[in-house]
Amino acid sequence: MCLSSTDGFKPPLTHPLGPILALILGRAQGSDVCVPCILTLCDPPLIPPLTPHDGTLSCGDAGVSVYPPIAAEVFFMVPKPVLVVSKCLGFDNCRYNGQSLFDTFVESLKGHVNFIPVCPEMEIGLGVPRQPIRLATVDKQPHLFQPASDRVLTDAMATFSSTFLAALPPVDGFLLKHRSPSCGPFDVKIYEGVSKTSGSKRGAGFFAACAMAGYEGVPMEDEGRLKNFDIREQFLIRLYALTRFRMAREEGRMRDLVAYHSTHKLLLLAWNQTRFRACGKIVANHEHWPVAEVFDRYEDSLRKALVVRPRTPSMINTLMHAFGWISEGLSKEETAYFLETLEAYRDERVPLSLLLGLLKGYAVRFDEPYLLNQVLLAPFPSPLMMVSDSGKGR
Ligand code: SF4
Q: Containing H/E element for 85?
């Protein structure tokens, strides 16, 4: 961490960007922002440009320094995630009332992902239409039943879930039906007993809980939460990051993993600095593990790195790193505009995608290969970007 080297630094307020720097540096204290990277932005620079201009990152990069990244062919293909989806989300009229649900986001994914639709309730023999089923806890165990018929469905659903999940090809994510006692991953009503008067708590549906247990670290969301812009953006970023990793893994060569790490450096740095360093060490492979084991270790660390959404200071630190690659070519006004936009992002007045778009534009303008190869600047296909927002931070 390079922050300590500039502890106590006060930017001269007579400098054209002094007030903005003072604001950012003031906020940087106690955050992960890499101050030297900020100081190179000024015209004239307050300090000379430091790395990353030599092809490595200046902050906390314990990983391999591969620049330009090996252009593995997999990164020039448009990745197509494999997504398990609840069948009633526009694939079949399989809801208890014989209907299906139209969801704009699911529709937008068609053509971009390979869906594996599934309706667990149909698969265990419940017809359409059917009486609703309930999830309860009995003797501390999940209990699935149909109150109208007193039919207990627990064993049938457990058998189907384990059989179905075990037979799946490698999958990159799950998009399931909101609040369903079978499919809902979050916020499902779970009764504390089978009587009509039982109290309830919230948790995962039966099938979703089995999927979570078997696919730790794989993105799983429901269509309700994905109406939130931020949750949707994070879901897509994770989904496509893991899809690209699966593609690299399918190639199976060390150079594919090196290329993956090189192109995902900024993304990993934003999400989790500690895991970013760990991934770098795994790729460096000083222990000389077999390639398959290197992929296993990397995948484990990658999944854990992406589970928790990035903190704003960590993302800002990363954006400043990226900006360091092109800042020398920008006018004072352009630099000031970028920094103002960064502040707006910090204050949650603009989305991350706005800053990524700015950086991508600068990278194209200066034909900056390091940035153009960073997937963070275009983490998923642009047609999937939707600006709609539920306004609920579900
Ligand atoms: S929520 Fe799941 S189980 Fe219920 S109808 Fe939809 S796909 Fe079938």
A: strand 82-86
8-28 pLDDT, tens digit per residue, is: 333 333 334 444 444 444 444
Q: What is the Cα–Cα distance from 68 to 54, expressed in whole angstroms?
A: 11
Q: Which of 184, 201, 227 is the last residue of a domain?
A: 227
* pLDDT on residue 382: 87
List pocket residues of ligand 1, CB cut-off 6 Å.
86-88, 94-95, 119-122, 177, 180, 182-183
Report which protein residue has its CA nearest ligand 1's atom 6.
88
123 CA distance to ligand 1 centroid (A)?
A: 10
Same-domain pairing of 381 and 239: yes
Same domain, 274 and 378: yes
Render pLDDT for 324-339 as a digit per residue (tens, 0 to 9).
999 999 999 999 999 9
Kindly report the number of other CB atoms within 10 A of residue 184's CB atom.
25
So what's the pLDDT on residue 6? Answer: 31
Longest CA span, the chain: 79
State the amino acid at position 28 in one-letter form.
A
Atom of ligand 1 nearest to the CA of 180: 1
> Same domain, yes or no, for 156 and 64?
no
In this prediction the pTM is 0.81
